[in-house]
Design a protein that fits this description.
The protein has 203 residues and is α+β, with helices and mostly antiparallel strands. It contains four helices and nine strands. The strands form two sheets. The chain has a five-stranded antiparallel β-sheet with strand order 1-2-9-4-7, with no helix packed on it. The chain has a four-stranded antiparallel β-sheet with strand order 3-8-5-6, with no helix packed on it. A hairpin with a 2-residue loop joins β5 and β6. The protein is elongated, with a radius of gyration of 26 Å.
């Protein structure tokens, strides 16, 4: 009786190892640079000029063909007006894109302010809801940037440099913040208003 053939033993392929966390951070740099550049309306050449690096280097960084040096990353971050940590944080898969303000971040019921926007290292704009007692004045901090002020309840008396505005409920005022600016609540009750602030840019 002829011997029975023994089928060859098939070796089980090892599952590919998961990419280390640092690799995910590096992979996320290029898409973040490209997204910010497009959001700013900049071409590769414009970003390269602003960052004082070659357009080829920016192109390779965006495509993931080159890991930027610390110096290059600092230059690109400065040109895009974001902290360098923006490119190395929140790179874990599944990290939420949005920030949901709830609970303790609800608008205040008494005089005061509550921030309702995401962290400054992730977002350029900052939004805050304020309640201001009648007759109380608040002075804005002078800095490069702009503010969109929307009155939700009551009326505000707003001065921007040497201009004066009376902004009522449902109305808004958009102004640069590199000039002196302040506002006070008119009437007898609390005024509630929203400010959306974007820092940076040329005054």
């Amino acid at each position: 009786m002829p011997p029975r053939a023994v089928p060859p033993v098939q070796s089980e392929e090892a599952a590919p190892a998961a990419a280390p966390s640092w690799a995910r951070v590096v992979e996320a740099i290029g898409p973040k640079v490209r997204a910010l550049r497009q959001e700013r309306g900049m071409t590769l050449q414009q970003l390269a000029h602003a960052a004082d690096v070659s357009a080829a280097a920016v192109h390779k960084v965006e495509r993931g063909d080159m890991v930027p040096t610390v110096t290059t990353m600092l230059k690109i971050a400065s040109a895009l007006d974001v902290p360098v940590r923006h490119f190395v944080e929140n790179a874990e898969p599944g990290a939420p894109l949005a920030v949901h303000a709830h609970g303790a971040q609800r608008p205040p019921r008494t005089a005061g302010s509550t921030a309702i926007s995401g962290p400054a290292e992730r977002f350029r704009a900052g939004a805050t809801i304020h309640r201001l007692a009648a007759g109380t004045q608040r002075k804005g901090r002078r800095r490069a940037g702009e503010v969109l002020l929307v009155v939700l309840d009551g009326t505000l008396d707003v001065t921007v440099a040497d201009e004066r505005y009376e902004v009522a409920e449902g109305e808004s005022l958009h102004f640069p913040t590199h000039v002196p600016h302040a506002w006070s609540a008119l009437g007898s009750g609390l005024a509630q208003y929203l400010t959306v602030t974007v820092e940076g840019g040329e005054p």
